[in-house]
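Dear colleague,

Thank you for sharing your sequence with our group. We've completed the structure prediction you requested, and as agreed, I am returning the results in plain text so they can be pasted directly into your records. Please verify that the sequence below matches your submission; if there's any discrepancy, let me know and we will rerun it promptly.
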Amino acid sequence: MSVMRGILTFGTYLPHHRLDTSEIRNLIGSGGGRGRRTVASYDEDSTTMAVEAARRALSAADTTNTHAEPATVGDLAGPMAISRLMFATTSPAYADKTNATAIVAALSLPPTLLAFDLAGSARNGLAALVMALDSTADSLVVSSDVRSGRPGSADESGGGDGAGAFLIGDGVDIEPDRSPGDAATDEAPIAVSLGTASVSEEFMDRYRLPTQTHTSSWEERFSEGIYGRLAKACLEQVCARTRLVPTDFDHVVVTSPHPRAARCATRLGFADGSLHAPPEGIGNLGGTQPLVALADVLERCEPDARILVMNLADGADAVALQRTAEPLRDTGPSVQTQTGSGAPVSYGRYLAWRGELTPEPPRRPEPARVSAPAAARGADWKFGLVGSVDTDTGIVHLPPARVGIAGGTLDHMAPHRLASDTGTVVTFTIDRLAYSPSPPIVFAVVDFDRGGRLPVELTDVSPTDIAIGDRVQMTFRRLVTAQGVHNYFWKARPVQPTTPPASASDR
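Please find the predicted C-alpha cells below.
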C-alpha cells in the first residue's frame, strides 16, 4: 500500500451560450474572427460558474465536511475532509470581499475550512493547482473567468468564459505494482503528481489598473521572446525534478493569454504528436484555460500516460502528472461534450450583457438591494438550497420550515439539500413585463424527484422550447445586482445530456 498525492476528481463548466465571432466585424467594422467563443449569460459571473464546476468535481467525492444532506455519495475510499478552497479568477464579482466564501456556502461546505481568492492575474489558475499539489492539505482548487475586451478587440473575439475545479488529496494505491491491464482500486487518484516547477520575472505584458474595465497589453513581440525563455527554464526545472526529458511526456499542453506565447512549445523538444492544442470553439479562458485543457486531456488519455501542463502568464508554471489506471468518475458532461453543445447569442445581446450597450430598461421599478442580515440568516437556503424534511411525515418543505405543513412537533425537521436534485416542470408562464436584464422571464413550478415543490425561474432555455413535463436541474445564478450587491440564488435549467469520457481506444 502506498500513498500518492494527486487529482482525485475534477469538473468543468462551459456556459450555455456561444458567440459567432464573425458577427463582430459585421457590426463594428473591424476585429472579429471565424470561430465561436463561450459566453457567460447575464445571470452568470465568475462565482456562479465556479460553483457549477466545483459541484461537478464533488459530485463523486465522499466528503466528511458537508453540513447538509449530500445528494450523492461518492466512491472514494473513505470520506475526506476538505480543509482548503482556493478560488482563482481575473474577473472577481467583488473586489473588496472574499468571493470564495459564496462558493463554500453554495456547496454547503462548513465554515471551518480556509477559503480565499487568488485574483488579478491569469497565472493564478495553474498556480493554485501547483500550491495544492505541493501541500499536504486536501484542497479544492477552482478557477473561473469571464473574459471580455473592448468591442472589436482581440481579447473580445479570442476570449472565452468558463470554469474548472480539481479536488486534490492523498489517495491510496493498494496495488502499486499492478500491470496497466489490471483492475484499478477505488482508492487511487486518477492522476498522480510527478512534480511542479515555476519561474517568475517582472515585465509588462498584460495589465489593468483597479479603476479600469478593460485590459491593455504591450507589443506582442516583446513578450513573446521573454515567454520563450521562461518556458525553456521552467521545462528544464520540471525535468530535473521529475528526472524526465521532454520526449518522455505523452501529452503536453501549453497555454497563455498571450496569443503567440504558446507557440514556443514547438521549439522545446517534445515528441511528435504530443502537443495538444486547447479545446476549440470555446475561446481562451485566461487563467482557467490550463485547468480545462488538463481536464480534456485526462478525459481522453490512456492509463500510465505522462502529462505536462504549462501556463505562461507573468512567468511560467508547470505541472507534471501521470494518469493512473483508475477509471474516471462521472462528474458531468466532458469538455468535448460541452464544446460541441450550446446555443447562439447575438453580438448585440452579448454587448448588453457585458455592459458595453445600455438598452432601454423595462418601465418597472428596479429591484432593491438584498438585505445582508436577511441573507445571512437564511444562508443555508439562499446559497445552499437547503430545505427541510419533516422527520414525522417525510414531507419536504421549500423554503425550510420549523413546523410541518401537516402539523406536528416544533423543530422535528432535518436538512434536505436540493441543489443536485432533478425535477419536472408541472406548469410555467412567460412574463414579458417583469424587470429583467434579458427579458422575457420564464417562470415555472417544479416538482422534485425526492419531494418538494418550488416556483423557480428558468434559465438557459428559449421561451419557445419549454413544455410541461420537461426535466430540469438546479443551477446557481445571480438574480440581479442592485447598489453594488449581487443577489445570488438558484434557478432551474433543462437537464444537460452527458456522455461518458472517451477511452483511449475511442480516440
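Summary note from our side: The longest helix spans residues 220-242.

Kind regards,
the structure core
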